[in-house]
Amino acid sequence: MAYLWFKAFHLIGVVVWFAGLFYLVRLFVYHAEASEKPEPAQSILKEQYEIMEKRLYHIITTPGMIVTVAMAIALISTEPEILKSGWLHIKLGFVLLLIGYHHYCKRLMKKLAAGECQWTGQQFRALNEAPTVLLVAIVLLAVFKGSLPFNLTTFGILGMIVAMAAAIQLYAKKRRRDREKMEQASGQGEVLSGAQ
Questions:
Q1: 165 FRET partner, CA 20 to 30 A, in 135, 136, 151, 157?
Q2: Where on this chain does heme bind (predicted)?
Q3: 17: exposed, middle or buried (C-beta count within 10 Å: 0-12, 13-18, 19+)?
């Protein structure tokens, strides 16, 4: 019975942790793009994003990580022989990468707050895809365990990375076109108002 409770809270922790990580880096995108706004909007937006980032990181994301890790340790304590499984070692390696990503986000958050981060919104969008790749790998390992077809999985994950990179580039291109159209429209409006 304890195993089922640990597993339930482990899954809840994973959902909370990933939700926090996904939203946190999305806030970084908006924070970075606030630099393109005129004052006073720029200062107001940056201050608001800084508050939201800190609260999300400390109240949701970090507790989600702690619950996930604590419940994983509890799960392993109920079946210590599982530590001999190769798939679990690989999964734990991905989890360590995710914990590193989590702490790297804190570092970026501090740099954004200090005005020292030079990352663009586009770079943050790309960074936001990293936990997706880790999530897929971790879940596949947890579900398939030792029977995971690694050749097919590796090919699928690489394909997913390429697809995400292409989607990010297409989105960036669309945003540039939309911005150019808006600038042209505002330029034509100024010309017309000047002619009157």
A1: 151
A2: 10, 91
A3: buried
